[in-house]
Amino acid sequence: MKVLVPVKRVVDFNVKVRVKADGTGVDLANVKMAMNPFDEIAVEEALRLREAGKATEVIVVSVGEATAAETIRTALAMGADRGILVKAEGRLEPLAVAKVLRAVAAREQPGLAILGKQAIDDDANQTGQMLAALLDWPIATFASKIVIEDSMATVTREIDGGHETLRLPLPAVVTTDLRLNEPRYASLPNIMKAKRKPIEEMTAADLGVDTSPRLTVVKVTEPPARRAGVKVASVAELVERLRNEAGVL
Amino acid sequence: MTILLLAEYDNAGIKDATARALTASMALGDDVHLLVAGKNCAAAAAAGAKLAGVARVLHAEADSLAHHLSEPLAALIVALAPAYDALVAAATATGKTVMPRVAALLDTMQVSEVIKVVAPDTFERPIYAGNAIETVKCIGAKRVITVRAAAFKAAGAGGAAPTELITVPAPPARTEFVGAELTRSERPELTAARVVISGGRAFQSAENFRKYLEPLADKLKAAVGASRAAVDAGYAPNELQVGQTGKVVAPELYIAIGISGAIQHLAGMKDAKVIVAINKDPDAPIFSVADYGLVGDLYQILPELMLAL
Predict the structure, then answer these.
(1) Is B131 close to A223, i.e. CB distance below 8 A?
(2) Over the Cα atoms of chain A, what is R_g?
(3) Closest Cα partner for A159 from B18, B181, B83?
(4) β B195-199/B253-257 pair status
């Protein structure tokens, strides 16, 4: 069984982004980029399935500008077998990415697609669900455990009040939550090896997908600033102020 | 504009997140229909009819809808979609799973985690863990929206909407519900509580978390939250995580204890009315958003606080 793992190049999670003065977006010039953390978890899970003999090949795909190849290379260094870079210009929305991924899935015929539950740039949390819809596959979002047995995936998911477990026939889509696994670091020999692994390139147009956006971004602004308040000296002062000044006790 | 709002409910009635999403829906237009789908959910449908602002309740009964699994629920919403201009849900685990599937089946983009309705086709939503706010305008006629519940007040009671039992399309019942483990708690729900007390890595163990933080929460009738570090370390269960990828809360009072204040955590609580931070590191980033900061050791401060309250 092949496992398809889409990965996204995003601003590193440690970077505090700044909104551009003209309100058109956030400033990405000279900002450190990295693989979306939830996608790293997806890559790790796919590798573990291969190592456990449940999967035969881990294919990593990224959609975006040419620089997305770096992110694919990171996944190859973790241990993925090969990459696919689908080049597309401009702002890409989850629906467009899901359509590209559907076309890739049609060519590759994976038994499972594992995606990060959301990207930490647009925080949309849509692509996996949309891919499942377009492929007419079942889905389990927010996975904290995946067991593959007899062409079925048994997935434990994080929900609002605790956990729930679903059983899905393969092929299926699973999206990862934080506690599914801890992604490995790429070792130096594997980083070297990854340079020789193949990355196939194509464009969204080659796959017949129109990636033009469906939403217009009117503006991007700073959130309302929250000012630091005061440091209190004691528990007594804290309680007094919460009672009489803030009126919340 | 006619709006279909997906209801979530439990034995106690319609969930607070849905009542808040109802307020957002009413900002879109005044003809809001509430979809109560499930198995044996007549009581929830009746409760939904009493929410002020609901013009009609659509009550859908089917075995396949029992656990709000994504495929049958999305199929139902898509079948109802032609009659609606906007399809809305709260951005809960269920809403976040079902609505993008609906959007893709309708070949439209979803607007996720709306925090403000600027106009019926224009919305504000947070991006980059709330470090920027994006205003987006929908181009197509059909809108699919999830609502960040914490950004809206809950709609009140006082409605008397008519309820209609609707037919449910036969869905592809491929996914099997195996079971759920829900945490039972006497405390208020995290996303609806007036007071939230959250603990971080400084608690050092699940035992300390229980011993020092929980009595304080009980005393203040507060919900308990946790930072990602505390959840990862096993001090608190995952459903208590507050932050960019966990729960987003906006209580009257948020008390962060032993939490350094990573941007991912701030994303989940910085809209609280009053923030208190207790941390032994005077330079912890949490103090930059706290209205009241107290520097010190939680093992000394919390017992003192118990006595002072």
Answers:
(1) yes
(2) 21
(3) B181
(4) parallel
Cα dihedral A95, A101, A105, A111 sign: negative
Which residues of B fall within a CB distance of 8 Å from A241? 292
Please list every residue in chain B whose beta carbon sits closer than 8 Å to the beta carbon of residue A222. Answer: 132-133
The band of B272, judged by pLDDT with boundaries at 50, 70 and 90, is: very high
Helix or strand run (H / E) with residue B255: strand B253-257
Q: Is residue B89 within 8 Å of residue B147, measured between CB atoms? A: yes
Cα–Cα nearest to A170, from A208, A140, A203: A140
Search chain A and give the residue with CA nearest B252: A248
Helix, strand or coil for residue B127?
strand
Global confidence as pTM = 0.94
Length of chain A: 249
| Nearest residue to A104 (alpha-carbon basis) of A10, A201, A39 | A201
How far apart (Å, rounded) are the C-alpha atoms in residues B197 and B216? 8
Q: What tokens were used for A200?
A: 């196939």
Residue-wise pLDDT for A117-163, tens only, equals: 999 999 999 999 999 999 999 999 999 999 999 999 999 999 988 99
What CATH architecture is B195-308?
Answer: 3-Layer(aba) Sandwich (3.40)
- Residue B222 to chain A, least CA–CA distance (Å): 11
Distance from CA of A74 to the nearest CA of B (A): 22
Q: Determine whether the interchain pair B239/A165 forms a contact, defined as Cβ–Cβ distance below 8 Å.
A: no
Q: Are B149 and B91 in contact (CB under 8 A)?
A: yes
Residue B56's SS3 state is strand
Distance separating alpha carbons of residues B186 and B223, to the nearest angstrom: 9
Asked whether the domain spanning B195-308 has the same topology as the one spanning B2-166, the reply is: yes
Burial of B147 (0-12, 13-18, 19+ CB in 10 A): buried
Residue A5: beta bridge partners?
A: A60
The domain A2-244 is placed in CATH, from the list 2.60.120.10, 3.40.50.880, 3.40.50.620, 3.40.50.300, at 3.40.50.620
Rounded Cα–Cα distance for residues B85 and A173 (Å) = 29
Architecture of the structural domain at B2-166: 3-Layer(aba) Sandwich (3.40)
pLDDT tens by residue, B236-247: 999 999 998 889
Q: How many CB pairs under 8 A join A and B?
A: 247
